[in-house]
């Protein structure tokens, strides 16, 4: 995880919280607020719902902290609580999009968009809100099983193993889903990005 | 054996994560050296990952932290009054 949770003794913090020092929970979760919210937003696709679900997930983590055994990282545990929360909300609302056939057929082949010369992407591209929005839409449009692993690995910088653990799937399955997610995004975004970027930077694609 | 483009595409994700077996990695690298199409696909995928990793894509709403910690605070007070 990008957050600075790595160099802390989280086991010690958790023990202290369970020992009655509840205020320390604020500091414990602070590095993971963005990861939990990103996961909620990518799944629920609405800021208000995502915020409420993220709050609920943190509350559940607090109430159930004694059940955390320390076999997984605290961040992995937290994300799996968030996933369960988001999934149960999606089930209740029945707003989940019908999963595409792609999702059912994990063995199928995905092909990327073909184009030439993509070497330069200046970071100031993101200054343009349009691009940020385009990325968000493309990610939230991925079928859920691909979106989940993509958000964990490529947005929140979990390792492949940690992503697999949070999702409760095998490492091999996580790799396959991640690959498909990335190629689906490349296929959709490469032409879209080329359209909004200065022509000079996105030479011919065919 | 020389890899065809579509077989190289299957390894793009593993290539980016550095998880390919040495033998496969060598074949993919050889292919990339002379194939502009696959090199561009690799570059575009990598660049999309760089863009999506930017913190500005999924930004926390203003006041998110304050609202979260206020709600937690209420929960903590409730749990303390119950246990005491």
A few lines on this structure:
The complex is a heterodimer of chains A (206) and B (84). Chain A has 206 residues and is mostly helical.
**Structural class designation of chain B:** mainly alpha
Multimeric status of the protein: heterodimer
* Shape type of chain A: elongated
Q: Strand pairing plus helix content of chain A: what structural class?
A: mainly alpha
Helix and strand element order of chain B: HHHHH
Mean pLDDT of chain A: 81
First and last CA, distance of chain B: 73 Å
pLDDT below 50 for ≥5 consecutive residues: which ranges of chain A? 100-104, 199-206
* Radius of gyration of CA atoms of chain B, rounded to a whole number: 24 Å
Question: Could you tell me the number of beta strands of chain A?
Answer: 0
Residue share in helix of chain A: 55-70%
Largest interface: A-B, 55 and 41 residues
CATH homologous superfamily identity of the largest domain in chain A: Winged helix-like DNA-binding domain superfamily/Winged helix DNA-binding domain
CATH class of the largest domain in chain A: Mainly Alpha
Strand-residue fraction of chain A? under 5%
The shape of chain B is: elongated
Indicate the low-confidence ranges of chain B by residue numbers.
Answer: none
Give the number of DSSP strands of chain B. Answer: 0
Largest sheet properties of chain B: none
Give the total of domains of chain B. Answer: 1
CATH topology of the largest domain in chain A: Arc Repressor Mutant, subunit A
